[in-house]
Every structure is written in C-alpha cells, then in structure tokens.
C-alpha cells in the first residue's frame, strides 16, 4: 500500500467500477492523513450514490405495480409554467422503457439547470415516446390557466407516437379514454412524471429564451416569465408585451402603459 501515492489511490478509488473491500480496509489502516481524506471523500460519494439508487427505486414503484398488472406503455404527464406572468404553459407526456435507469432524476424544480439539461438529453434519447403541448398567453387569458394547463397536457398526450395504456398525471385529473391516476407531487414520486416534468421545463425555458430575444427589456431569458422584482419593474416601466398573460393581476395592472 505504501508504494501507492495518494494520487494513485484516488484514481483507483474513483475511476474503477467497484473498489475491492480488502483495498478499502487497507486504506483505513494507512497512517497518511491524505489517504484518509481521499477515503472519506469516496465513502461520501458512495453514500450519495446509494441514496440516489434507493430514491430511484422508490420512484419506480408506481410503474412496477402497473406493469405487474399488465400495463406496459405507461405515460407520465406534467406541465411547466402555470405561475409565470408571461409566456406559454408547456406540458409533456413521456413513455419510458421498462429498463430505463437514471438515478438522480427528480422533480425538475429540484434539479440544477445543468442536471435538467443532462437528464433531458438522456430522456430524449431513451424514451419510447415523447409528446409536447404548448398553450400561449392569449389562450391562457381566454380559458384560464388551469384549463390551459389541462389542454396542454391533452395536446401532449395526442402527440405521442405510441399509444399509452395507462396515465400517471401530476396532480390534476384529465378526461381521456385511458385509465389514469393523478398523483399529488407526482413529479417527485414517479420516475415517468419526473421525466415529463424535465421535458416540459427545459422545453419551456428554451422557448422563453427565444421570446426574450424579441423582448429583451423584461429579462425573460433569466426570469422565464416569473414575477421577479426586475420583471415587475419592467412591467411598470414598459407595460405588457404581447406574450404577457393579461388576466394575471400584475400584468392587468400594467395595461395602458404600453
């Protein structure tokens, strides 16, 4: 053991697929403080990975129970953008294969921007089918945000290229010909809904950045249409843009100052 440098030990721990138990025991007995620091760092990483694996298994429980009942094409449905003052509400419907494996997946709001982008690419590549529905600000004002979110979900469902045989939906009930279950906080409880949450959120963020190129004064590229202090100040100064939701109070109050 003494003939290995601390850097070599670190490479062996973090780059090898599975560290040998005997090797770990030898490290524990090594008198070098640097070795103990590396080992402690590795043990924390192992603990974190185990927690993610357990959380992932927990999040597949709904899907596993449904597959045991004979359902195979299980679609998770979620939306992004009910709360913002501007931009569309975007929904996604996602069907994942039974062997889908992505420990760390979670409600998109609990993930960093970098993780959302990373997981978006994995889901996009591995999903059996993905559908997206988008309802703009004008229609949101016409039918209200809840109905717009539901319509976006139904549109996303209609865009699936594979017919689902069961739906797992985040929080709301939809009128469809398919058996379904609405799960409160479903995006943190079901891997399929979490995948839909990520697809919807990343898609909407990209749309808001595009809209932000046309209406730079509101800072949409950073606030995504939410009512930040800077956004509210811009509303007060410039009035509402065509992509603002005029039925939402802060926007409604700004009308007439365009």
Automatic annotation (TrEMBL):
Cofactor note: Manganese or magnesium. Binds 1 divalent metal ion per monomer in the absence of substrate. May bind a second metal ion after substrate binding.
GO biological process, one term: DNA replication, removal of RNA primer
E.C. code: 3.1.26.4
Cofactor(s) it depends on: Mg(2+); Mn(2+)
GO CC term (a single one): ribonuclease H2 complex
Recorded superkingdom: Bacteria
Domain RNase H type-2 positions: 72-258
Binding site for a divalent metal cation: 78-79, 170
GO molecular function: manganese ion binding; RNA binding; RNA-DNA hybrid ribonuclease activity
Keyword field: Cytoplasm, Endonuclease, Hydrolase, Manganese, Metal-binding, Nuclease
Pfam families to which the protein is assigned, alphabetical: RNase_HII (PF01351)
Compartments, as annotated in UniProt: Cytoplasm
Principal location class: cytoplasm
Signal peptide residues on this chain, from the entry's feature table: none
Function: Endonuclease that specifically degrades the RNA of RNA-DNA hybrids.
Family from the record: Belongs to the RNase HII family.
Protein name, entry field: Ribonuclease HII
Annotated source species: Mesobacillus foraminis
Lineage: Bacteria, Bacillati, Bacillota, Bacilli, Bacillales
């Amino acid at each position: 053991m003494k003939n290995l440098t601390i850097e070599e030990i670190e490479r062996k721990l973090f780059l090898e697929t599975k560290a040998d138990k005997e090797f770990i025991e030898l490290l524990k007995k090594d008198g070098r403080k640097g070795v103990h620091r590396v080992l402690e760092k590795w043990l924390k990483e192992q603990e974190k990975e185990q927690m993610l694996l357990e959380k992932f298994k927990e999040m597949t429980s709904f899907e596993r129970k449904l597959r045991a009942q004979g359902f195979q094409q299980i679609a998770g449905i979620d939306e992004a953008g009910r709360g913002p003052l501007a931009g569309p509400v975007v929904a996604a419907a996602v069907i994942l294969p039974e062997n889908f494996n992505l420990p760390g997946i979670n409600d998109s709001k609990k993930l960093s921007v970098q993780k959302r982008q990373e997981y978006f690419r994995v889901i996009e590549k591995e999903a059996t089918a993905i559908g997206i529905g988008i309802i703009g600000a004008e229609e949101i004002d016409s039918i209200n945000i809840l109905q717009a979110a539901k319509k976006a979900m139904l549109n996303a469902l209609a865009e699936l290229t594979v017919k689902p045989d069961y739906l797992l939906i985040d929080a709301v009930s939809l009128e469809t010909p398919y058996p379904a279950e609405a799960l409160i906080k479903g995006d943190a409880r079901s891997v399929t809904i979490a995948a839909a949450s990520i697809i919807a959120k990343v898609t909407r963020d990209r749309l808001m950045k595009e809209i932000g190129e046309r209406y730079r004064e509101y800072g949409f590229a950073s606030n995504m249409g939410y009512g930040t202090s800077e956004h509210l100040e811009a509303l007060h100064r410039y009035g509402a843009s065509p992509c603002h939701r005029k039925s939402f109070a802060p926007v409604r109050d700004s009308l007439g100052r365009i």
